[in-house]
Design a protein that fits this description.
single chain; alpha/beta; TIM Barrel; eight-stranded parallel beta barrel; 9 helices; 8 strands; 15% strand; globular
């Protein structure tokens, strides 16, 4: 298991400075934001080579919505995702984080009962889109990382079990899952068990406490979750995606030490 931090959380005037600070703070990599990434690929690649700090993942950055009821919105999202996958491959990242749809995005896929339920229609449409995008992911050498969210942020794909169903239907090695401890704290009945059941497809983790602050604030049991990850042989990145309740120069190193203690079991 390797630790990363989203780039906007790290102090520094340049990407290289942020990476140098990450190394000093005790982290292994950096997750970059997808918005505006295409224009920054060379800068990020150069900074990564100079500092020896790898890019873990690309977090979103596409327009539209991959599961919108509007074909134009879907087309824009998947076109952008394919470009981000190419950038992720160039940067050596595991892949691009993809959320199919957020609450409030209109129009939604309709309920077509008795032909099929809304969930069945959404699943069939998303699987079809993923199968097509998987070819671009394979060519780029990067993964599509489906992220389940919580009920307050999406009405579709909220558990790892649902994500596993989708990955099984797509049946392509470049379509995988990521898990977020903040969302799992709300949606999963048992976080360690959910992680174990998703072992075949799990390629990335987001870390945040139950209040979406740094993991060492709050009541989430990271030690139990990390024990499950160690048991299934998880070897990919875990990236901080949360708020920092204090100076990053003090809080990020403290969090790294806390997480590594949890990783030790």
């Amino acid at each position: 298991m390797k630790l990363a931090v989203q780039e906007h959380m790290v102090p520094g005037r340049t990407v290289a400075e942020k990476m140098e600070n990450l190394r000093k703070f005790g982290y292994d990599g950096m997750e970059v934001r997808g918005w505006g990434l295409l224009e920054r690929v060379e800068e990020i690649k150069r900074a990564s080579e100079e500092t020896g700090v790898p890019i873990s993942t690309v977090c979103a950055g596409f327009g539209g919505a991959p599961l919108s009821g509007d074909p134009k919105q879907r087309e824009q999202a998947w076109r952008d995702i394919e470009q981000l996958l190419q950038a992720a491959g160039e940067l050596g990242a595991v892949g691009v984080i993809v959320v199919p749809v957020f609450i409030g995005h209109q129009p939604r896929i309709p309920d077509l009962s008795p032909l099929m339920t809304q969930r069945e229609a959404e699943d069939r449409l998303l699987v079809k889109c993923l199968k097509r995008a998987a070819k671009a992911a394979e060519k780029a050498g990067a993964c599509i990382l489906l992220e389940p969210l919580n009920r307050g942020e999406t009405n579709y794909l909220r558990t790892l079990a649902h994500g596993v169903e989708l990955c099984e239907k797509v049946n392509h090695p470049n379509v995988c899952l990521m898990a977020d401890f903040y969302h799992m704290n709300i949606e999963e009945l048992n976080i360690p068990q959910a992680l174990k059941r998703a072992r075949k497809f799990l390629r990335h983790i987001h870390l945040a406490g139950n209040t979406r602050l740094l993991p060492n604030y709050g009541s989430t049991d990271f030690r139990a979750g990390f024990n499950a990850l160690r048991e299934i042989g998880y070897r990919y990145f875990m990236a901080l995606e949360c708020a920092i309740p204090g100076p990053p120069e003090k809080e990020l190193p403290k969090t790294a030490r806390f997480l590594r203690r949890c990783m030790e079991g």
